Amino acid sequence: MSSMKDKCIIEGYTPWQETTPGGVVTSTGNAHYYKTGGWRAEKPIWLKDKCKQCLLCWPTCPDSSIPVEDKKRVDFDFDHCKGCGVCAAVCPFAAIDMVPEGK
Amino acid sequence: MAIRDKLSGNEAVAVAMRQINPDVVAAFPITPSTEVPQYFSSYVADGLVDTEFVAVESEHSAMSACIGAQAAGGRAMTATSSAGLALMWEMLYIAASSRLPMVMSLVTRALSGPINIHNDHSDAMGCRDSGWIQLFGENNQEAYDNFIMALRVGEHKDVQLPVLNCYDGFITSHSVENMELLEDNLVKDFVGEYKPQHYMLNSKQQIAVGPLDLPPHYFEHKRLQAEAMRNAKNVILEVSAEFEKMTGRKYGLFEEYRMEDAEIAMVILGSTAGTAKYVIDELREKGVKAGLIKIRVFRPFPAEELAAALSHCKAIAIMDKADGFNAKGGALFNEIRSAMYDGDARPAIVNYIYGLGGRDVRTNDLEKVYDALAEIVATGVVGDPYRYVGVIDANDVAVQAEAAAARE
Description:
- The complex is a heterodimer.
- Chain A is mainly β.
- Chain A is built from two helices and four strands; from the N terminus they run βαββαβ.
- Chain A folds into two domains: 1-34, no CATH class; 35-103, Alpha-Beta Plaits (2-Layer Sandwich), CATH 3.30.70.20.
- Chain A is 9% helix and 14% strand.
- The longest helix of chain A has 5 residues, at 86-90.
- The model of chain A is unreliable at 1-5 (pLDDT under 50).
- By secondary structure, chain B is an alpha/beta fold.
- Chain B has two domains: 3-247, Thiamin diphosphate (ThDP)-binding fold, Pyr/PP domains (Rossmann fold), CATH 3.40.50; 254-407, 3-Layer(aba) Sandwich (Rossmann fold).
- In chain B, 42% of the residues lie in helices and 19% in strands.
- Chain B is built from 14 helices and 15 strands.
- Chain B has a seven-stranded mixed beta sheet with strand order 3-2-4-5-7-6-12, with helices on both faces. In chain B, strands 9-11-10-13-14-15 form a six-stranded mixed beta sheet, with helices on both faces.
- In chain B, β6, α7 (140-155) and β7 (163-168) form a beta-alpha-beta unit.
- Chain B is globular.
- The A-B interface holds A 10-17, 19-28 and B 97-100, 160, 197-198, 205-211, 213, 216-221, 223-225, 227-228.
């Protein structure tokens, strides 16, 4: 949690006297620090061999959880992927499988 | 030198808005507040202000546009009444909890149904816990003065809350009265520049307004919001004192009229206070020790101050121009009775619902209330405190006779 302080994030259970009026967030890019991977019920599996790197999955991901390096997608960011399955639905090459989380 | 003029309440408020020259006015017409944005839009068309006037498609959108403008760092204003305020409901809370100090004139009117466009306080009472500061004016002068002071109160760093400038529909909004306007430059200097701590058009600091606020945070933000409303009381007094230096017009949390030795008293919001003062003067001629408290600041509620001011009375009538529908009386009644609990004084307190949907409130109606208070003092019997005055009641022979005369 201490790493958050450099981004002006008010930590949970901060005394009311020290929080911001109306909950104004006084910096940007903080969603990165909030890990939502634990919300997942289904997990996407990237089938690298079937993937043609068309990158159609990348802009459809609502949580920016498909990182791209050197113009190619790499494996999912499971700290933030909520398992919504949109990427699997749009993939023209069946290169993403959805499997139950925890198996 | 002040400028003497003859204006309606709505005109006076529109003049105040012109003098303030806000950044954004977003409004949708609804009687009796319609004239405020109507007059103001003519100032925009004539180039007398720099304001961006947003003609929106509903009151929900009017309040939303004001929220956006204020969050961006501008001064936003609007006006509404009744069902228009009701349609803003969701956004009223968002304006207050996002701590956006805009100013809105609430030209008070009954809520439907059945449909009624005339004055009572159902709209103002309905939003009483939405987090807005609520000032009530008795007449055109007070509607104008309160509007100017509202900016300074809401924008104060210890407050940062939106303010409702409430005045009575038609009775105040459409009646023309002699009044004193301030010179444009005095108003401009008094309200000054709006300098918010955080605002969205600040290129040096990117912020997010109105974020998702989950259980580890929400409670603390509401607690901080509650503190702002507590702080508002002193800020209102400070701003009012400064206004008095400029104008000579004194404003407090409430006005006490002939209360020094009053044994029986009324507590009233809005224009009916003027009628009550006339009745009190007549009763005083007859030796009746009658008095009045006219509440100016309803939110924050000046509980301790009211309790102290009423403590020496023997019987009090709390006048509610909106029914409570809790089967126990109107909002003002319940709050004042609650305020009295913290003191040692135990005057008899009754509640009168009056003037709903624009029913005329005449001097003889208020005389009846003072007579009833005198009766309580004489007999010591309070009876049912939840009462009505001015309603046609099959069991009230005198009122039936008045109704018959009215039908003629």
